[in-house]
């Protein structure tokens, strides 16, 4: 134990020293660069002096009258030979010689194009040429991640530019202005920001910043999540994060449009609530004038109030808060819930099928709509193609069937799992592997959870027989993706007496704050049979993409130890 502590201390010291040396080297290089850029003073006799420089309100950029603004996404044949204006981040510059420099311009996400700046022949003030040597030097010295605007002629490169997303065209830069220069030294380079994160630990360790260099990646060091979040703008600029964010936006859009097409109405539940109604321990408390308030752990009760209030089908998309000290790749203290609730006509399977339908629609559509973004993510975080069930071949197991499968076909350590006890995370993952092997799918449903594993509002299956311990099955289910839970749902109790009985059976006082008012709603009016489910948006994005942590799928991950940025 002591020996391993000494070794890890030594390793940490070594890593720290290495990181310091690396940082020093980078700083020196940056200083040299800054000095060289500083040295490139704008030459007032330079006939090209109006074609480059730092743009300011008093000295705005000037362009040719025939130049048109373009976006890289829509650059095509029609632009070949034309003069265009592009606003972009300069992500790389390389002076080839005194007469020629290459730049890489990134407009958004992974949309990049090569630019070349070439000094033209001899000039005189009477016959100013397009690009001068001082201009080439100045452009070649712009610091990476500066925001620039260029005027350029679109042309075909000698060979396709493999390093840029726009590979069939390049820009012959004839004007270049910095709108917002970046500092000489970045806290994290774009190349590092676009490498897989090496450590998701939220605590400062001895070894700061960037991790080991990887020979396979041109020696670009990878960084920890802490470094990423401390350099949030660079983290977000990385094409991989932009692609994840675009996929997330599309997932949300697909959820909303599918449900709207089926008569669901969107509503906004409150985040601030007066009682920790769904359970005491994992709720955030905060001062509220002279009282105490809580942050909602889910929109559950409010979805049901909407149904009680005469809405037949509702959904909400919004933040959910959990005061759980769970430092895992699956948990955050704030996440985005995709929730729905609907009236049941005949059977709770209507709810199960609706939830299955919306998720499969989202996963299938996203593969088509975001194929390019998925590819960008896979280039950084490789993952196996997700296996979805063929229509009509969806896998729905009862909890008892799932446990039997695990006992019979799972790892030896799960030979004795019981039908009346909830599954642990390792059990869920092992079952995921068995289901993939047996049914060729990464997406499946486990239904009829035991009442011990569900909250008091879950409807007990009237047909279920109690186990020897008195445990009964419920009309409640979880959905899984790549062996991890992504959704909880089921039928809710709509009869006030039955509800009160289940509340007591769970050892909760029906007169306790939040609970009494909830049960009252079912006494005030007749509430139709109903059910629904809650999906974690961060989890479906992360597990669909095979990411190592939900923290990568969130815009600003909140964990027990991190509240910023
Ligand atoms: P778990 O057992 O994994 O902690 P849970 O049973 O508490 O999850 P529910 O309360 O049923 O989860 O929430 C519904 C869905 O919300 C989950 O299936 C999951 O997708 C998501 N979710 C729950 N807790 C978190 C969390 N802390 N961080 C991110 N997503 C979460």
From TrEMBL:
CDD domains: AspRS_cyto_N. Residues 247-557 form the Aminoacyl-transfer RNA synthetases class-II family profile domain. Signal peptide: none annotated. Belongs to the class-II aminoacyl-tRNA synthetase family. Type 2 subfamily. GO terms for biological process: aspartyl-tRNA aminoacylation. The keyword Membrane does not apply. This is Probable aspartate--tRNA ligase, cytoplasmic. GO terms for cellular component: aminoacyl-tRNA synthetase multienzyme complex; cytosol. Residues 7-34 form a coiled coil. It catalyses: tRNA(Asp) + L-aspartate + ATP = L-aspartyl-tRNA(Asp) + AMP + diphosphate. Residues 41-53 have a biased composition (Basic and acidic residues). Keywords: Aminoacyl-tRNA synthetase, ATP-binding, Coiled coil, Cytoplasm, Ligase, Nucleotide-binding, Protein biosynthesis. It is found in: Cytoplasm. It comes from Coniochaeta hoffmannii.
């Amino acid at each position: 134990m002591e020996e391993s502590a000494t070794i890890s201390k030594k390793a940490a010291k070594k890593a720290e020293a290495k990181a310091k040396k690396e940082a020093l080297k980078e700083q020196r290089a940056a200083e040299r660069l800054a000095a060289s850029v500083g040295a490139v003073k704008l030459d007032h006799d330079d006939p090209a002096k109006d074609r480059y420089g730092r743009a300011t309100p008093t000295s705005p950029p000037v362009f040719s009258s025939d130049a048109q603004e373009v976006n890289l996404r829509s650059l095509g044949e029609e632009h070949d030979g034309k003069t265009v204006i592009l606003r972009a981040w300069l992500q790389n510059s390389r002076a080839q010689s005194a007469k020629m420099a290459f730049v890489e311009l990134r407009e958004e996400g992974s949309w990049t194009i090569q630019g070349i700046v070439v000094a033209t022949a001899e000039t005189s003030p009477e016959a100013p040429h397009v690009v001068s040597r001082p201009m080439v030097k100045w452009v070649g010295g712009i610091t990476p991640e500066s925001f620039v605007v260029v005027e350029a002629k679109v042309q075909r490169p000698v060979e396709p530019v493999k390093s840029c997303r726009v590979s069939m065209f390049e820009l012959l830069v004839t004007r270049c202005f910095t709108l917002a220069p970046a500092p000489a030294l970045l806290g994290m380079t774009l190349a590092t920001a676009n490498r897989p994160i090496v450590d998701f630990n939220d605590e400062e360790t001895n070894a700061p910043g960037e991790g080991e260099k990887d020979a396979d990646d041109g020696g670009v060091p990878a960084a920890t999540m802490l470094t990423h979040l401390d350099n949030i703008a660079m983290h977000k600029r990385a094409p991989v994060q932009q692609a994840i964010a675009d996929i997330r936006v599309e997932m949300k859009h697909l959820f909303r449009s599918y449900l709207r097409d089926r008569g669901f109405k969107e509503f906004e539940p409150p985040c601030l609530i007066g009682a920790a109604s769904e359970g005491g321990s994992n709720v955030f408390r905060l001062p509220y004038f002279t009282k105490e308030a809580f942050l909602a752990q889910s929109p559950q009760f409010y979805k049901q109030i909407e149904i009680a209030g005469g809405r037949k089908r509702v959904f909400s998309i919004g933040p959910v808060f959990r005061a759980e000290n769970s430092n895992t790749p699956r948990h955050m203290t704030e996440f985005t819930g995709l929730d729905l609730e609907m009236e049941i006509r005949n059977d709770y399977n209507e709810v199960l099928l609706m939830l299955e339908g919306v998720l499969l629609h989202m996963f299938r559509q996203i593969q088509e709509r975001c194929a390019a973004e998925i590819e960008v993510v896979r280039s950084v975080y490789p993952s196996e193609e997700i296996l979805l069930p063929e229509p009509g071949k969806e896998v729905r197991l009862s909890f008892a069937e799932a446990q039997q499968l695990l006992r019979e076909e799972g790892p030896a350590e799960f030979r004795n799992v019981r039908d009346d006890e909830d599954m642990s995370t390792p059990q869920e993952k092992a079952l995921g592997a068995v289901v993939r092997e047996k049914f060729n799918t990464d997406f499946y449903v486990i239904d009829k959870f035991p009442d011990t594993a569900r909250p008091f509002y879950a409807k007990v299956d009237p047909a279920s027989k109690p186990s020897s311990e008195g445990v009964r099955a419920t009309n409640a289910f979880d959905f899984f993706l790549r062996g991890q839970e992504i959704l909880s749902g089921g039928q809710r109790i709509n009869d006030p007496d039955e509800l009160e009985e289940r509340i007591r059976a769970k050892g909760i006082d029906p007169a306790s704050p939040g609970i009494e008012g909830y049960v009252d709603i079912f006494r005030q009016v007749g509430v139709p049979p109903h059910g629904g489910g809650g999906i974690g948006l961060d989890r479906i994005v992360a597990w669909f993409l095979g990411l190592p942590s939900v923290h990568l799928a969130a815009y600003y991950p909140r964990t027990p130890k991190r509240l910023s940025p």
